[in-house]
Write a structure and sequence with these properties.
single chain, 598 residues, alpha/beta, ABC transporter transmembrane region fold, four-stranded antiparallel beta sheet, 60% helix
């Protein structure tokens, strides 16, 4: 239960309401425990003696106790709900904040569906347990302790009979807790899988329909659904068998009190009122155990969910700022790769984090995506990166904003190791437009201003014009106030890419990265973008990944990557004269003139 105990730190900000809630619960228990004693008084001093005054006065006291119990219970419920909802909201916020600190390496190992389940279903399980802890789980021991005390005060011999049942009931509850936890953990994992399949199905619905894979996706979802249902049935069968067993033990205790107490009453050692009070206190003392038994399933589920939440909160970001990192006062934009090696297999394994930095997996040369990269981009230079699919182009530029860290060697900015620069300070100097642009719900203006929310309207329009996006945006009925659909569904691929370029330009970065960001744009528009960018790129270092060689002919430096290594480097004229790989790329795309130095 350590994971579940850790979750109660989210209750600390609400401890005032939590304490008040438990105090009200004490009032509920005290009022409830007073009623059997008052019932005994009505029977022994009122009914037996036919004293209407005692009957009326005691009945009024019982009514008052019932009213107080109800009021205290309502207050307890209201406060416990506030505490639980607040703690749940803080848990979700903590998960999202933690995920925002993750590097790409962490996110590569955590599926989106898993994060969604942990931020919703798992948090709901723990949230429910927080509420129950302030209601049933706190009330049960108070009620049981008070009932035992009152039963001892009524009859020590009957109290001993009840205490004999406690080990049986507690042992039964513990057995169910131990058996249920792994089952609930399995349920949550199956829910992860169900969410993953559903998310892929919805996100790729156009591909599914295009390839007529409806039946395949239905079968895949049905299988995940059946697996989840099967585990849920096993859990429910286990928990459903607990309460009847508990009820049998409680009834057994009541039968024992009636039989033993009835004999005492018949012999004159016990009054009728005392036997009624004893039965009530017996029920009161064992009923909390039934409550705990009924909570065995939710407790196990909450503990399993708490462990999954802790996996997220304890996961250490692979890329972090060093404690002594300092932001540079001036950034010139000189980027250097010094004998850089990188492998995705060397990243920390999410499943082995457990709150501590995981040991990196040893990599071989065959695992390296980048191997021995030495490259310098001077301030203001445009560096084009070419290469076949899988040659390491995107991996190379992802090291510049430290989406990943090099396994060996280092990347520097103006001579300073990137790891010595705070992440925030580094990334504010880098603007990036990816091949697959991500747009957010909101207006076109909001998306362009995403990295610079304070930008003026003139700055937004200037960035859009440079990215050749202004004309099509202005043609929309609502212009820059046009709402972007989910994942930019109401925009074409080229329009989304141009908005992404405008977004990157608006932050006025010292380093600009264009990762095949015009792949969905026609040649004419791409040429216009290049012309508009020439002026903007003059005072910033630019890295351009392109599939079309025509877009990089005028770059200051062209780098050809092959299997994670630099196969050639130079200007177009130099490479066309000396690099067979570059000549092959040039010939395959532009045909005649492969040996033309112009």
């Amino acid at each position: 239960m350590k994971s579940l105990q850790r979750m109660f730190r989210f209750v600390k900000p609400y401890q005032r309401n939590a304490i008040l809630s438990m105090l009200l619960l004490v009032g509920v228990v005290a009022a409830d425990l007073a009623i059997p004693r008052l019932t005994q008084r009505v029977i022994d001093q009122g009914i037996a003696r036919q004293d209407m005054g005692t009957i009326v006065s005691t009945s009024l006291l019982m009514l008052g106790a019932a009213i107080l119990s109800a009021l205290f219970a309502v207050g307890n419920t209201l406060l416990s709900v506030r505490v639980a909802m607040g703690a749940g909201a803080d848990m979700r916020s903590a998960i999202v904040r933690q995920v925002q600190t993750f590097s790409f390496g962490n996110l590569d190992r955590i599926q989106t569906g898993q994060l969604l389940v942990r931020a919703t279903s798992d948090v709901n399980q723990v949230q429910f347990m927080v509420q129950m802890a302030l209601r049933m789980l706190t009330r049960a021991p108070l009620w049981m302790l008070g009932s035992v005390v009152m039963l001892i005060a009524t009859s020590t011999r009957l109290a001993l009979l009840m205490l004999a049942l406690f080990p049986l009931v507690l042992g039964l509850i513990w057995f169910f807790l131990v058996r249920a936890r792994p089952l609930f953990l399995s349920v949550q994992k199956k829910l992860d899988r169900l969410n993953q399949v559903l998310q892929e199905n919805l996100a790729g619905v156009r591909v599914v329909k295009a390839f007529v894979r409806d039946e395949h996706e239905k079968a895949r979802f049905d299988q995940a659904n059946r697996d989840l249902t099967s585990d849920n049935v096993r859990v429910m069968q286990l928990t459903a068998s607990l309460l009847p067993t508990m009820r049998f033990l409680v009834n057994l205790g009541v039968v024992g009190v009636v039989w033993f107490g009835g004999n005492l009453t018949a012999s004159g050692d016990f009054t009728v009122g005392e036997i009624v009070a004893a039965i009530n206190y017996m029920s009161f003392s064992l009923f909390p155990l039934m409550m705990l038994g009924g909570m065995a399933g939710p407790i196990s589920a909450a503990d399993a969910s708490a462990g999954r939440i802790c996996e997220i909160l304890d996961n250490v970001p692979e890329v972090q700022s060093r404690p002594d990192a300092q932001a540079p006062s001036v950034v010139e934009g000189r980027v250097a790769f010094e004998d850089v090696c990188f492998s995705y297999n060397s990243s920390n394994d999410f499943s082995r984090s457990n709150g501590a930095r995981a040991t990196k997996v040893a990599t071989t040369s065959d695992d390296l995506v980048l191997n021995g990269i030495n490259l310098i981009a001077e301030p203001g230079q445009t560096v084009a990166i070419l290469g076949a699919t899988g040659s390491g182009k995107s991996s190379l530029i992802h090291l510049i904003p430290r989406f990943y860290d090099a396994e060996r060697g280092r990347v520097t900015l103006d001579g300073a190791d990137l790891r010595d620069i705070p992440l925030h300070a580094l990334r504010t100097q880098v603007g990036i437009a990816l091949q697959e642009p991500v747009l957010f719900s909101g207006t076109v203006r909001d998306n362009i201003r995403y990295g610079h929310p304070e930008a003026t309207e003139e700055e937004v329009i200037a960035a859009a014009q440079a990215a050749q996006a202004h004309d099509f945006i202005a043609a929309f009925p609502d212009g820059y106030d046009t709402l972007v659909g989910q994942r930019g569904v109401n925009l074409s691929g080229g329009q989304k890419q141009r908005i992404a370029i405008a977004r990157a330009l608006l932050v006025r970065p010292k380093i600009l990265i264009l990762d095949d960001s015009t792949s969905s744009v026609d040649v004419e528009t791409e040429a216009k973008i290049e012309i508009a960018l020439e002026k903007l790129m003059a005072d910033r270092t630019t890295f351009v990944i392109a599939q079309r060689i025509s877009t990089v002919l005028n770059a200051d430096k062209i780098v050809v990557l092959d299997r994670g290594q630099i196969a050639a480097e130079g200007t177009h004229a130099e490479l066309i004269a000396s690099s067979p790989i570059y000549q092959e790329i040039y010939e395959s795309q532009l045909g005649n003139g492969a040996t033309d130095n112009g």
